[in-house]
Design a protein that fits this description.
It is built from 19 helices and 30 strands. The strands form eight sheets. It has a seven-stranded mixed sheet with strand order 3-5-1-12-9-10-11. A five-stranded mixed sheet has the order 7-16-15-14-8. A four-stranded mixed sheet has the order 20-28-29-30, sandwiched between helices. The chain is about 30% helix and about 25% strand. The radius of gyration is 27 Å and the shape is globular. It starts with 12 loop residues before the first helix and ends in a 24-residue tail after the last helix. By secondary structure, it is an alpha+beta fold. A hairpin with a 6-residue loop joins β25 (about 565-570) and β26 (about 575). Bound molecules: pterin cytosine dinucleotide.
């Protein structure tokens, strides 16, 4: 029996759908509860904090100010990410806020009480004397530099670097036309079902933290560094995580304050963010790009240049450095554009720090390049598919090194585009839409191509143990929290060991389980985590083959294994079963059947084409009627789960393109609540069709797969916005003006 390539159902779902899940808030240790006193100002000095009234409330145990917490911290929170250079960023380690608040919602004190309601009520009684200061709320204000978010950094620029490849000056000299592009992504809320949460328990010099996180091992290292506790005495447990979408790859000052409170009070302390807090402290994406493309009249794009400006909010989160450093090298996407110059700037503003959100950098890069290709097609009057075919990197150029130094591993971009146009019936959809428009309907079709970088290493931990009855435990350093990667990894190991999936128990998300782990983000789990688990499984199988050889009185080379039996190659009638070998593995010399690896890995580059159909009604409300996808994600481990990932991410793309935005007013106040922030539901979800390349281009990973967890949100917004803009074109004007910005959030909500 083989599992890889089959639509195996997720092994964790029975528990999740029958209410047996265990989120941080479900953990039933008798604990105190924390609530935060937050700044109502975007920028202000904190002159005094008076907790007298709060402390009088029955049930309140303590109030700690930022200054109190910080006095016992050894260090602050610093960004952490692989694949980027932290030294190029200007930042300060972040502690709990004291002295000066830098955004609305900045936590300056924590109230600890016997329950969360008492803590919340008492937090409102903490009196804080603020002296408001001028604030730099927008990117434009912050760039002027009149108000500095961090006075001591001497600038609001967290990062400023020109990425240059090829000879852009020459490309623009040779251009027959220069076409300008201006795109913007608004601030979004990743909106996981379960908000952030933490429970900390300090006992006898050891700290246990249950956190709704994607990166337990990294949290362990950071907590160890910040509190000066050896990491061997810190245990981070990631219980079930009710969605994360990249926003939980962080440690926040709130979480630091909760850990501090638990240590100080010697009692477990819990904090689970309210929905309003979640909306305030977890936002992402905001960026602007202003640029131009140098083109020849035949549509060849010779060069691209422009300014990329990214909002970091008031502090760098763990993943803050990603966007300014990854968008530029990805900005040419799958196209053979040999000259690029991008000034990438990351800017501090007096707004909540921005986190990561599904795709982080790749949706932005894709949006920029796909809107550019649409603008070029429109200006030159060239069919958008022909234009893309002309510029796509050819298969014989693979592996292809782009002008900013990224090497795309494998693929056939033009071939996939041609097949996608047929499979997704793009031409037919377009002519249908044109006919409908001639009847007065505002319906449009948009196509977008994406090239993604994912499967980030540099390594992952994998361990496989076979017990004395032949049951298998897989420990992975990846941290599945909804994507289904645990099932994909279990499929891979089951096939490698030739055992039924029922025999496999996969565990993750507890730093006591293994020495290290990178976590889940950047669509890496089944590819990088799966590779580690596969290599560990191979090692265990080798050891079992040795045990079998001993039982069969043969040399190890004389034994082969398949489907539950170790046999003599020359006499297959002589064999020993998987169970016999498992038992013998603990009964003879060199006992034990377990292996672990830290498997190194490099990035991989999936790609694909999405087509969207959008209708705008007479009131301006837009809906995505249908969304079609054709992706090359290397070897497909589980088509049902991979498709599910496309579906989920496309629904988020609908939100990003049409409905979601976290607006911030001139006072730095978020002016939306979860009541009117429209996360698409089943009602707004389009009909979807999803296919994977029949002859995929494999990656170099042991699994041969490429990631898929973010693809729908990487390419979806570009296809949807293109469809939206064509919906508004009269049937006679094929290349009307595109709306290069997302439509204004006000006029569109269908609910
Ligand atoms: N898969 C496959 N074949 C491939 C690649 C993947 O069958 N060639 C399957 C895997 O078995 C897995 C799924 O597709 O079930 C996604 O795998 P992968 O691309 O490795 O992505 P990860 O498991 O690393 O998931 C992370 C990714 C990211 S970065 C975000 S953000 C995200 C996401 O996936 N957040 C999610 N999906 C989410 N889904 C849910 N429900 N909740 C989130 O928070």
């Amino acid at each position: 029996m083989s599992y890889v390539g089959k639509p195996v159902r997720r092994i964790i779902d029975d528990r999740l759908v029958s209410g047996k899940q265990n989120y941080v808030d479900d953990i039933n240790i008798s604990s105190l509860h924390a609530a935060f006193v937050r700044s109502p100002y975007a920028h202000a000095l904190v002159k005094s904090i008076d907790a007298t009234d709060a402390l009088k409330v029955p049930g309140v145990v303590a109030v700690f100010t930022g200054a109190q917490v910080n006095s016992e911290l050894k260090d602050g929170i610093i960004p952490w990410v692989t694949y980027v250079d932290l030294r190029e960023m200007k930042f300060k380690p972040r502690k709990v806020t004291e002295g000066e608040v830098k955004y609305v919602g900045d936590p300056i004190a924590v109230v600890v009480a016997k329950d969360s309601y008492v803590a919340r009520d008492a937090a409102d009684l903490v009196r804080v004397d603020y002296e408001p200061l001028p604030a730099a709320v927008t990117l434009e204000e912050a760039l002027k530099g009149g108000v500095l978010v961090h006075e001591d950094l001497g600038t609001n620029l967290a990062y400023s670097k020109e990425f240059k490849g090829g000879n852009p000056e020459e490309a623009f000299k040779q251009a027959e036309k220069v076409i300008s592009v201006s795109v913007e992504n608004g601030r979004l809320s990743p909106s996981p079902m379960e908000p952030r949460g933490i429970l900390a328990q300090y006992e006898s010099g050891s700290l246990t933290v249950w956190a709704s996180t994607q990166v337990p091992y990294y949290l362990r290292s950071d907590i160890s560094r910040i509190f000066g506790i050896p990491s061997s005495r810190v245990r981070v447990i990631m219980p079930d995580v009710g969605g994360a979408f990249g926003s939980k790859v962080h440690l926040t000052p709130e979480e630091v304050a909760v850990i501090y409170a638990s240590m100080k009070l010697n009692r477990p302390v819990k904090w689970v963010a309210t929905r309003s807090e979640e909306l305030m402290i977890s936002t992402a994406r905001q960026m602007k790009f202003q640029g131009e493309a140098a083109v020849k009249a035949d549509g060849t794009v010779l060069g691209l240049r422009g300014n990329l400006t990214l909002d970091m909010g008031a502090w760098l989160t763990y993943t803050g450095p990603i966007q300014p450093q990854i968008i530029p090298p990805m900005i040419v996407g799958p196209y053979r554009i040999r000259a690029v110059s991008v000034l990438s700037r990351a800017v501090y503003t007096n707004t909540p720090p921005l986190t990561m959100y599904r795709g982080a950098s790749r949706p932005e890069a894709t949006f920029i390049i796909e809107r550019t290709m649409d603008a070029v097609a429109r200006e030159l009057g060239i069919d958008e598919v022909e234009l893309r075919l002309k510029n796509l990197v050819k298969p014989d150029e693979m592996p292809y090194r782009n002008p900013l130094g990224l090497t795309y591993d494998s693929g056939d971009y033009p071939g996939l585009l041609r097949r996608a146009v047929e499979k997704l019936e793009y031409r037919e959809l377009k002519s249908w839409a044109q006919q409908e428009r001639s009847k007065g309907r505002r319906v449009g079709v948009g196509l977008a191509f994406y090239l993604e970088i994912c499967g980030f290493g540099p390594w992952e931990y994998g361990e496989v143990r076979v017990d004395e009855r032949g049951y298998v435990t897989v420990v992975t350093g990846a941290t599945p929290h909804g994507s289904g990667a645990e099932t994909g990894i279990a499929q891979l190991v089951a096939d490698e060991l030739g055992v039924s999936m029922e025999r496999i128990n996969i565990v993750w998300g507890d730093t006591a389980l293994g020495p290290a782990g990178m976590g889940t983000y950047g669509s890496r789990s089944v590819t990088v985590g799966g590779s580690a688990a596969l290599v560990a499984a191979r090692k265990v199988k080798e050891k079992m083959t040795k045990v079998a050889a001993r039982l069969l009185n043969a040399d190890v080379e004389e034994v082969e294994y398949s489907e539950g039996t170790f046999r003599l190659k020359k006499d297959p009638s002589k064999g020993v079963s998987w169970e016999q070998v498992a038992a013998a593995g603990y009964a003879g010399p060199d006992p034990g059947l377990a292996a672990s690896v830290l498997q190194e890995a490099d990035v991989t580059f999936p790609y694909g084409v999405h087509v969207s159909v959008v209708e705008v009604d007479e009131t301006g409300i837009a809906r995505v009627l249908e969304h079609r996808a054709y992706d090359d994600i290397g070897r497909v481990i589980n088509p049902m789960l991979a498709e599910g990932q496309i579906h989920g991410a496309v629904v988020q793309a609908v939100g990003q393109a049409l409905y979601e935005r976290v607006p911030i007013d001139e006072n730095g106040q978020i002016t939306v609540t979860f009541a009117d922030y429209l996360v698409p539901t089943f009602v707004e979800a389009p009909i979807m069709k999803c296919e994977f390349a029949e002859k995929p281009h494999y990656s170099n990973h042991v699994t041969k797969s490429k990631g898929v967890g973010e693809a729908g949100l990487i390419v979806g917004p570009a296809a949807i916005v293109r469809a939206h803009s064509t919906a508004m074109i009269p049937a006679t004007a094929l290349f009307g003006r595109c709306n290069d910005r997302f439509p204004s959030p006000d006029a569109r909500s269908p609910r």
